[in-house]
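Researcher: Next sequence.
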Amino acid sequence: MKYTINRGKELGTDSFFHKRRKMDISAKTAFISGGASGLGEATARMIHQGGGNVMLFDLNAERGAALAGELGERADFAQGDVQDSGQLADAVAKGMERFGALHFCICCAGIGPPARVLGREGPASMDWFKGTVGINLIGSFDTVRLTAEQIAKNDPDQEGERGVVVMTASVAAFEGQIGQAAYAASKGGIVGMTLPIAREFAKLGIRVMTIAPGLFDTPLLASLPDEAKASLGAQVPFPSRLGKPSEFADTVRNIINSPMLNGSVIRLDGAIRMAPR
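Model: Next structure:
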């Protein structure tokens, strides 16, 4: 069977469908903030299993060092806070020294402490708001700007691509619940900067995407009892369960492999739309 496009050129199935270019993860390096647990850990394992290198950056030194040690020689770890530009820059430099290049930036560092703007004890603390925005939004921006400087130095592939940036937002960016003013603001900022950065980086051959997860079984929910987790999972239309970190990692892999995915936000949420509370 042949297909005709608007210029009148006929394309067979081999040329039109079966020659989609994929960026090979093997021998390439991913810088992963928040890489010691949850979504970041699952992504690190996916990259490593695909033959790539991982540069982990996380505040939790014990977990980060343990994961890097488990993965072996194609993994390294730098302890630090995404709110500290100096620590981030040192980690990026360590990744460059160890692996010679960076190709993927995956931003997974984040927090989500709940609080009401007007609580029982009065107005919310500004430290709560600034801290959440500082880690989730400003930390993501800082990670992107420092890693992109290095990704831009790579030789382009046959389509001119040098690398991929993936940031992590949340469905709270669109349907923030009561108590999530800071969290929703920080994640909404990530959504808002995705397209402008993608447009700017286009000339560099760097794609920029954001994933907005719904309810996922990550350390953010770790303190909840199993009954509470099951109740949350039941709110998801289908599949009616919490998302798995490996499913987030699968989406990162699909983004890396799909060159037309650029400048957009992917909701990874099982069709959930969050209620006010």
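Model: Residues 23-268 form a domain with the Rossmann fold fold (CATH 3.40.50.720). The chain has a mean pLDDT of 92.
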